[in-house]
Amino acid sequence: MPPFPSYSIAPIGVGGDSAAHLSKVDTVDKVVFLTIDDGIVKDQRVMDFLVEHRWPATLFLVSGEFKKDPLYFAQILTVGGNISSHTSTHPELSGLDFDTQRKQICGMRGTIEKALGSAGHLFRPPYGSWDETTLRAAASCGINAVVTWNSELWEGNVDLAHRPALQPGDVFLTHFRNDLYDNLVALEARLTAEGFTVGNLEDYLPNQ
Ligand SMILES: [Zn+2]
Asked: CATH code at 88?
């Protein structure tokens, strides 16, 4: 038995043999979604913050960094978060052939599954670079949705790409870097000021 809760099975994405793509979630709920990429800096203050605030973040990780400390990342599962594939080695996918993309996407999903007993049903393409082949390759790996973003957190800034306020369904990208703790503190202040919470992305997938 894995030491952390396993995932429920999410519904199949639009079209069956193609995963859905989304950069923002269509909802009227006052929720935003927090996605954290790569996995390079593993700051325990970050996990303590996420668990204390019960933020079910989605972690999109690459193989080398995940394998260094799977149990660090697995702490997010205790608050309903998600650990999903960000490819094995972080290539730019657009233009690559199906088999190459499939190997990158499925390979990392398998690595997570092997370490933790199950893996999330989402996928984040490196650099936000994807094409139609990515959607088919992802679906063949059991991925429901290819998720990019419409907002970012960096160096303690909440970056809404010139929009004046949070909107229901905004998807935030940030990274496991040295500024991550400050980014979370900044996001919490913004959420509190505007009456939003962090939602669970898999609960808001298309066709749910
Ligand atoms: Zn990345």
From this structure: 3.20.20.370
Distance 90 CA to ligand 1 centre (A): 6
What value does the mean pLDDT take over residues 160-170? Answer: 95
Distance 177 CA to ligand 1 centre (A): 11
3-state secondary structure of 28: coil
pLDDT at 13 over 50: no
Distance of CA 124 from the midpoint of ligand 1 (Å): 8
The answer on pLDDT for 181 being more than 80 is yes
Tell me how far the alpha carbon of residue 138 lies from the centroid of ligand 1, in angstroms.
16
Q: What is the number of domains present in the chain?
A: 1
Alpha-carbon span 68 to 56, nearest angstrom: 22
Nearest-CA neighbor of 21 among 144, 167, 199? 144
Neighbour tally for 70: CB within 10 Å: 16
Q: What global pTM score does this model have?
A: 0.93
Asked, for residue 183, whether it belongs to a domain, the answer is yes
Which residues have beta carbons under 5 A from ligand 1 (an ion)?
A: 37-38, 126
Q: Taking each helix axis from N to C terminus, what angle separates 44-52 and 180-194, rounded to the nearest 10 degrees?
A: 20
Q: Is 168 exposed, middle or buried (0-12, 13-18, 19+ CB in 10 A)?
A: middle
Domain membership flag for residue 10: no
Asked if residue 180 is part of any domain, the answer here is yes
Residue 6 in this model has a pLDDT that exceeds 70: no
Domain that holds residue 177: 20-204
92 CA → ligand 1 middle, Å: 10
